[in-house]
Amino acid sequence: MKALVAYYSESGNTEKLAKAIYGGINVPKKEIMPISEAISKDYDVIFVGFPVQASSVPAKVENFIKSVPEGKKLAFFVTHGSLRGGQLAISALHYAFSLALKVTVLGTFGCRGQVKPGLIDALLKNPEHKAWAIEAQSAVGHPDKADLDDGKEFANLMIAKARNL
Ligand SMILES: Cc1cc2nc3c(=O)[nH]c(=O)nc-3n(C[C@H](O)[C@H](O)[C@H](O)COP(=O)(O)O)c2cc1C
After folding, report:
1. 27 alpha carbon to ligand 1 midpoint, in Å?
2. What would the pLDDT profile of 46-73 be if each residue is shown by its tens digit?
3. CB-facing half-sphere around the CA of 108: CA atoms within 13 A
4. If you measure from the C-alpha of residue 163 to the centroid of ligand 1, how many angstroms do you get, rounded to a whole number?
5. 29 bridge partner residues
6. Residue 142, phi then psi, degrees to nearest 5
7. Which atom of ligand 1 is nearest to the CA of 12?
8. CA distance 47 to 64
9. By C-alpha distance, which of 60, 84, 62 is closest to 132?
């Protein structure tokens, strides 16, 4: 089994989580790289990571998910400013699922990722972003050690699941 962690990250939060997930993958052949460099056909299990943006999936990530050949196993991981487990972040994962109809989605993981305070102030004034930006004010310090440990455990469990499919 060959595993890939392909991630998109603008301010480093998703990259941190990607590295923790990579650490939790227990297979001899594994690689980690930005999504712009990733070629999905070479791997059996692909962890696809991205920041939730405007309650959805960034365009580059959407194109990558659509390009994954039939029969592969995917696992999604996200960071987001809004509350963990909240509807504002889950809507992006629902959309990611809708793009992955010809592959098996093993599972999903999400944790919070901080947004620069200066940026939040601007986003709070924007009707399109206000709802999540209110919640994001308390995301300072995330992803933290507990988030990264959870991500690592998620990776381990997804690999175990892939082996049994
Ligand atoms: C332009 C922009 C839009 C965002 N939209 C959302 C959103 O809709 N919901 C949310 O929970 N967080 C949103 N965020 C917060 C990011 O998802 C969060 O900070 C994430 O951890 C950033 O990851 P990165 O450092 O890997 O880029 C947004 C951030 C930016 C800058």
Report:
1. 31
2. 999 999 999 999 999 999 999 999 999 9
3. 17
4. 32
5. 2
6. -100, 150
7. 25
8. 12
9. 84
Tens of pLDDT, residue by residue over 120-143, are: 999 999 999 999 999 999 999 999
In which element (H, E) is residue 47 found?
Answer: strand 45-51
Written as one string, the DSSP assignment of 71-129 is T-EEEEEEEESS-TT-HHHHHHHHHHHHH-TTSEEEEEEEEE----HHHHHHHHT-TTT
H/E stretch holding 6 reads: strand 2-7
Sequence letter at residue 95 = Y
Q: Is the pTM of this model over 0.90?
A: yes
Nearest to 18 by CA among 106, 113, 115, 104: 113
Q: In what order do the strands lie in the sheet with 2-7?
A: 29-34, 2-7, 45-51, 73-80, 104-112
